[in-house]
Amino acid sequence: MESKDIEEAGITPKEIKIVPFQSKIRGQVIATLIVCLACVEVGAVLTWTSPALPDLERKKRFGGLTVNEKSWIASAVTLGAIFSGPIAGYILDRIGRRKSLVILAIPLIIGWVLIAFSPIVTFMSVGRFLTGISIGGYILVCNVYLAEISEQRIRGTIMASTCIALGTGMLLTYILGTFFSWFVLSVINICFSIIILLSIRTVPESPVYLIHKGHKKKAGEELMRLRGATEFHQIEMELNELQSSTLEVETTQAQKSTEGPSLWKNLTRRGSLKAIGITFALMVFQQLCGVNAVIFFAASIFSAAQTNLDANVCAIIIGVDILFAVFLTSFLIDKLGRRMLLFISLLGLTVCLSGLGIFFYLQLKNDGITPNGISWVPLVCLMVFMILYNIGIGPLAWFLMSEIIPTDVKGPASAAATSFNWLLAFIVTKTFEDFTNLIGIHMCFWFFGGVCFVGFVFCFLFVPETKGKTLDEIQRLYFNEDKKVTSL
């Protein structure tokens, strides 16, 4: 309303109310749904071996698979993911978030083509390796992208969607694997990967990245798309705030690089070593609880248990279980706190894995036949296992890593911890069937259970509670290099 119109209407300046622009979430939701297609594919890649390996054996593909060949097919994906961190981290800042997601779809498509049409086991393993590079990169880039495009009021929900999408991918793979052959399942994933490649090209680029590269006008255009704005002035304030915070970070980093202590000195100070040590320990407990062995070989485990239910049906139940647990986590993480969830998770996992070990031990002592009345044990134990893993040590190892590692060493320390995590996943997946044949499946589960109990003791003694604290408060309270770390 012009000043002349205001005077004619008899309105005084004090009576004028300026209504701030209320952004719309539609653009953010659409971008999230599209990007989360990549997270669905992460779940699909991780669980493909569960229905596929038994089907490959039944059909005598490649003349029958040896234990070593099966372990390579299963574990090659984690081997590829080890190398994905440095690759994704490099292209993330070189070509942008959106283009990184597009580029990562290329090895994914090539990998699935090799898996579906491989004439020999080696090609199939190479295909799995390539899909591992993609999914490892997706986990990193998707989380960075979604954090940068989302508003504070819905950021938690937006970020939780990646876990829900991953659980959805797992469940869909278990279901489709029940009705379709390994080949059809692979072709479905080829088509889905192409959809990812085409659809991600339509999402806005991260405004934070564009500002970092000096493209403020383009950043404003993308922010308007994300916020549902029709005029530039509606998002101008938010855009200026993004620019100010980006410049502040860059200035701080420049000062540190010229005046501050070296990276090595930052990494080796007492506070940093404490945080990094806790992070690496959590990665050990996360992977050596045997979760990837359970996910990759779920159908085989149920077949060995000689349950009355079809192995693939049991695997579907586990997939539903995972999806339920992921939803549950989003409600519990800020209510019970990190430490309590870790305690419940690790103690519960100890009991579940011990129960599985006892089941297979009794089966062994009964000449390989499941004793009457206990055929339900594997399904119940694995269902509870997946719930407890996904409300505790599974997501919290990553969550705490982002909270407790000091900001000035977070990049290299997080990258190292991520590669270490995938290395452990590779070792567990590659050696699971070998150790099953060597010491028995019951001993494998007892070993995993023992690791979980050690993890419970470690978390009780060393892991801090971070609930309700800002990142600055966490690092100042627990990881001050000049003070002794507070004992909880």
UniProtKB/TrEMBL annotation:
It is a multi-pass membrane protein. It is found in: Membrane. SUPFAM superfamilies: MFS general substrate transporter. The keyword Glycosyltransferase does not apply. Keywords: Membrane, Transmembrane, Transmembrane helix, Transport. The chain crosses the membrane at residues 29-51, 71-92, 101-120, 126-146, 158-176, 182-200, 275-303, 309-333, 340-362, 374-401, 413-432, 438-463. Gene3D superfamilies: MFS general substrate transporter like domains. This is Major facilitator superfamily (MFS) profile domain-containing protein. Its main location: membrane. PANTHER family: GH07001P-RELATED, PTHR48021. PROSITE patterns: MFS, SUGAR_TRANSPORT_1, SUGAR_TRANSPORT_2. The lineage of its organism: Eukaryota, Metazoa, Ecdysozoa, Arthropoda, Hexapoda. CDD domains: MFS_GLUT6_8_Class3_like (cd17358).
